[in-house]
Amino acid sequence: MNRNEVYKKCNKRCAYCGDKIKFKDMQVDHIIPKSNFTRIVKTQKMHPTVDLRQIPDFLGHLTVDDLNHIDNLHPSCRVCNKAKDSFHLQLFRTELEAQVYRARMYSRNYRFALKYKQVRETPKPIIFYFEKMKQ
């Protein structure tokens, strides 16, 4: 893996939130997580008609030996990398979309801020920075 190549992949920005990141602060994220990579790729190869939603179309070419393939690596800020954890992309997206709901349900402070118009909810689908780059 070439960290510099990963860093430049998204214009020196986090692939997820789009914030600029310094090279020394960049974390390398595995799009298909390391912890489940072999199982996910093997399952997809054995059952190609099953929509696992764990392998994005642009990574369908990966084999079990491609964990550190440049296509499976994204530059990430610490916050996004920690939040993504071992989620695949679709699960990460779903978790992010649920944050406002969780705040409303479980945070009295959030509900109070909402009541006094200190925050405004703007629900919309999560589109990652790297996806916007491709559009």
What fraction, in percent, of the residue positions are helical? 40-55%
Give the averaged pLDDT, no decimals. Answer: 90
Write the H/E string, N to C.
HEHEHHHHH
> What structural class do you assign from the helix and strand content?
mainly alpha
Instruction: For the largest sheet, list the strands in their spatial order.
Output: 1-2
- The global form is globular
Number of strands: 2
What can be said about the biggest beta sheet? 2 strands, antiparallel
Spans of at least 5 consecutive residues whose pLDDT stays below 50 are none
Rounded to an integer, what's the Rg over CA atoms?
17 Å
> How many helices does DSSP assign?
7
Q: Regarding quaternary structure, how should these chains be classified? A: single chain
| Fraction of residues in β-strands | 5-15%
Overall domain count: 1
Measure the end-to-end span.
26 Å
Write the layout of secondary structure elements.
Layout: H1 3-8, E1 27-30, H2 37-46, E2 73-76, H3 78-84, H4 89-97, H5 99-106, H6 108-115, H7 129-134
Antiparallel strand pairs: 1-2
Brief sketch in words of this structure:
The protein is mainly alpha-helical and about 140 residues long.
Report on this model:
With 135 residues, the chain is mainly α. The protein has one domain (3-134). Helix content is 40%, strand content 6%. It has 7 helices and 2 strands. The two termini are 26 Å apart. The relative contact order is 0.19.
